[in-house]
Amino acid sequence: MAGRLAGKVAIVTGAASGIGEAACRLFVREGVRGLLLADVNDTAGKAIEAELQAKKADVIFAHLDVSQEKQWIDIMQRLVDRWGRVDILVNNAGRGGVITRPPVEHTTEEALDMSFAINAKGALFGMKHVIPHMRKSGGGSIVNVVSIYTVVADVLGTAYAAGKGALRSLTRMAAVQYAAENIRVNGVFPGFVETGMTRELHSKPENRKHRIDLTPLGRLAVPEDIAYGIVYLASDESSYMTGTELVIDGGISSR
Ligand code: NAI
Which atom of ligand 1 is the closest one to the Cα of 160? Predict the structure, then answer.
């Protein structure tokens, strides 16, 4: 099938919900050759796997906790055994939630450790273990899903922003370190998106209003708004881009 991702083999983490799920649907629509959906949520991941397989896509789901390095090594082997190569990694898995929100003086070590383990370390492990495979096949594209909270600050989200801030730095480091090998590393910086992660937060009218008021376009994003940017950075259309910070925030950071 022709498409913007024709012939490419990809892995997307956090594929069972929200932005990752939307990206996987677009990847299939754009003719990806092979796609590994990775997530800790096996039930939701398997349901999406079945739905995409019914569309004749070569898609498999695999359990992956991105904070566990050993699991990354196993998953890369699975990818290469099945398709012989990997061209695209989307480090999308991430976690925020109640414990990551309080301001600095109420931020706990537990919240910081969790945020760094998933939002930063998890993505680093992904890059670390995909790069040797990309090198073998002459290059690749890594897309890290960062956050607008690394560009602008807010009252909520301290520990979350700390982990994502580390990911922003790791993205730029990797971009410079591997550009000569044609391995591109770019970041997508979403604003406020309606997903599983934000459902509870956005269900409170005062939070919702605060976030919409901060957004010049006057609405919250849907997952596809972000997924389109991921497809672009994953595809060869962005072949002259590395280290880019693609902000998709409805104008928040232009205020
Ligand atoms: P979501 O909660 O809908 O999806 C996240 C997925 O990641 C879930 O399926 C979850 O099971 C999975 N996941 C969580 N921990 C994992 C782990 N340790 N290993 C593997 N998978 C894991 O959330 P959403 O919003 O789609 O998040 C996707 C990315 O976008 C995250 O990195 C998030 O931080 C980022 N983001 C989201 C924003 C929003 O407003 N929703 C704003 C800025 C960034």
Answer: 34
